[in-house]
Input
Amino acid sequence: MTNNVTPSGELVLKKLGINPHNLRADFLTREQRLQYRAVVNWITDYKPKSDATNLEKVRGYLEAFHHLGKVEDWMRNSKIISIRLDTPTKEELHHQLSLWGYYKELIELYKQIVGKLSSNLDAVFLANLGNAYDALGNYTQAIDYYQHGLTIFRKIADRKGEGRALGNLGGSYRSLGKYLAAIDYHQQSLTIAREIGNREGEGNALVNLGNAYNSLGNYLQAIDYYQQGLTIFQEIADRKGEGNALGNLGNACDGLGKYLAAIDYHQQSLTIAREIGNREGEEIALGNLGNAYNSLGNYLQAIDYHQQSLTIAREIGDRNGEGRALGNLGVAYDSLGNYPQAIYFHQQHLTIARELGNRSGEGNALGNLGNAHRSLGDYPQAIDYLQQSLTIIQEICDRNGEGIILGNLGIAYGLLGDYSQAIHYLQQSLTIAREIGDRNCEGKALTNLGNTYLSLGDYSPAIHYLQQSLTIAREIGDRNGEGTALLNLGVAYYSLGKYPQSINYYQHSLTIVREIGQRSAQERTLLNLCKAFSALGDYNKAIEYNKQHLALVQST
Output
């Protein structure tokens, strides 16, 4: 980004309706003239240094806002925060502050102006306050502002605004892991959009419903809503909405283990973002492509996409997006086995999250650091990071995140050999998943419990939990989860010396992981089949699977 992001001072003063040569005639008191002279000076004379931060680049506007506030000229202040900057995306000042991650400064601006103008504008600013707190991971505070805005929209009979407010509430409740409440709000938003014939609002509500069901692990239902939303956006030629719906379809396919379909959707989303010049959408699509390739086991391709996403985030000044891309890079390097590099990226993500005051991002970064140290074999350090993450996630009442971190703590304690503590945390994770109705996380908790009992050599409960995991994976259409459960059941029966049953599970698993293109899972399954046939004394079959395993490894 260039150093100068502000349009000419003369144009801004014209928009504000301030004539710098006529202050004495336009403003009666000396105090007023002093404040407006300060406004003129800050807008026309202030020049940021060459190494100025993004906040310093727009300091003239923020100072002008402060001086206008002293004379209670709130209408002009509303115009200042809506001035479009000379940035790559030509955002209004308050939206650009959000992209830059200056949420605390933004909150102060909104708080000063709320209640000073019309009810309609108050409702809009309250929604923006909610968005800022939501971005900081303070979902309960966001909900308070959304509710306040909703009350005003209903009072002034603004049905379109009411629908948007309900959608925002749904989004925050989803972030809290309260998926049924989220669905209820999105359904109300959908009803209003259909009643008033707001096709764009209808499409957004349908996609939001898809997001809620996706969080529940109900990917097929999510896809149905995304498809409905996509159809509407295509009908009304809303290219941005179309790209968003396609990206979400990709995420749902990723959850189902349909990685090639996911990549196709994300590529379509990326194409649209580039066609319409939506840089933020391009950044998100690239990140989603990286996640899909990571799931597929193509880590180098994943890293390439995440690096592209990071470059765009930095170009447009999207600090949250920058942190997200760094975290994704960390996960990819962890998957690649380059744990020091993974830790490096997660530490950068953590630094940004703390700078922004983003508690949700901080919790995620700490959790990822814990996972990276676990991969490195440093289990005490992993547990320390995961405990720090758990504290934050519990403070912000993120039930879904809490369940995930508890599951990761269970895995870490299991690797440390403390199986009783591992089972304790995994049972808590399972309880939360069932409480919030998250079938995907429930399946993972059951899988991890099964694996822990496998490590204990207690095969009966291991098989019991793995069978439950397999059932859930098949119910929600999670092909990756199904393949994993089958593989682990094969391990359990192999350990019991029941080699034919073991081979049956391995072969079913191999069919699935080949279908979805999961290379690392294919390698493990082929090696296990080799061992199982060797144990049966069928050395020809064992050699055949060993050759397939070797060929796959050499082709990587």
